[in-house]
Amino acid sequence: MRPAACILIATTCALFLAGCTPQLDDSHAVLKIPAALPGFDTQPPAPGIAKRAQDLLVQGERLASQGKLLEAVAKLTEALSLDPACAEARLALARTFALGGRSSVALALLRPAAEHVQDCGTCVEMLQIAQHSKELQHLREATAGRQLFAHVPQTPLPYLRWTADVAAALQIGSVQGLAPYVHSRLPFLLVRSCPACDVASATTPSRRELVGIGLAAKVAARFDTVHPAAFGIRLHVVQPPRCNNKCCDYSIPEPVPHGEAALRRLCFRATTPTQAVLTEVELVYGTPS
User: Is CATH 3.30.70 the right assignment for the domain spanning 159-285?
Assistant: First the structure.
C-alpha cells in the first residue's frame, strides 16, 4: 500500500480547512460538495488497476460531455480513487465540479498537485492545462486560484528532448541510452506493423506490453548496426517529429525499404519535470529482404 499521500480527505470541513473556499461556488450549483475526495499520489498503481481507472475516466469524460454531471462525478471519482496519480482523472473531475458550480471542490482537487510541482511531471503538465481550461475560468480569476497557479512552471515539458534521446538510442541499439526511460515495473506498449507484407496478420498493427530494461534491450538490439556481430537492421528516424498529447510522431518513408524499419511514434509519462518513462513505441517494417 502506498503511504499517507493516498489517505482520503475525510470530511467537508476538512476540505474547507485545507483551503476550499465556498465563495468560489455558484449559488445555483447543481452539484453538492462531497463528504470526501480521493487522495493524491505521484506513483501509479499496478497496470491492471491503472487500466480500469482509464476505462472509468473515458466513461466519465463522455458523461460530462453529455451534461450528465452527477453520473460523470461518480465515474471520475471512482477512477481517481483507483489511481490517485492519474492527472487526467483529477483534471477531468475538477472540470466537472467547476461545470457544476463547485469551483471550491475543483480547487481542493488541484491543490495537492500544485504542492508537488518540483517532483511530479504529470502534476506540472496537468496544471499547465488547467490554467487555460475554460471550465476553470472562475477559479483562475479568484485569489485562491491565482495562488494555486503561482508556482507552476510555464516552460513545456521537454518531450522533444526525451524523444530525441530514445530515438537515438534505438537507432544504434544502445541499452544504456534507453535505460533512463524504461520503468522497472510499468509496461510500455510495443506497436509493430508491416503494411507492405503479403501476410495479412503483419499488415495489422500488433500490440504487446513489455516490462523492464531486458525486453527493451531486445527491441533495441534489433537495430544495432554499430556492432558487426549484431546484424541489426537500419531504423529510419525522419526528423523533425510532431509532439502532442504526450506523444511525438515521425513521418515514415513510403514505402519503408525492404529489410529495414521506421520509427513512427514515441509516447512518455513524465515522472518529474525533467524525466520521463516510455509508454509506447511504434515501429513500421518494410518487407523482409
Answer: no
| Predicted confidence pLDDT, tens digits, the chain (289 residues) | 344 344 333 333 344 334 445 578 888 899 999 999 999 999 999 989 999 999 999 999 999 999 999 999 999 999 999 999 999 999 999 999 999 999 999 999 999 999 999 999 999 999 999 999 999 988 888 899 899 999 999 999 999 999 999 999 999 999 999 999 999 999 999 999 998 887 766 678 899 999 999 999 999 999 998 887 778 899 999 999 999 989 999 999 988 999 999 999 999 999 999 999 999 999 999 987 5
How far from 57 is each of 16, 48, 93, 135, CA to CA, in Å? Answer: 26, 14, 9, 17
CATH for 4-149 (1.25.40, 2.40.50, 3.40.50, 1.10.10): 1.25.40
Dihedral angle over CA of 77, 78, 84, 87, nearest 10: -60
Q: 251 pairs with which residues across the strands?
A: 238
Q: pTM of this prediction? A: 0.86
Cell of 20: 476550499
**Cell numbers 517532483: residue:** 119
Q: List the beta strands (DSSP E) in the chain.
A: 188-193, 206-210, 235-236, 238-244, 247-251, 261-270, 276-285
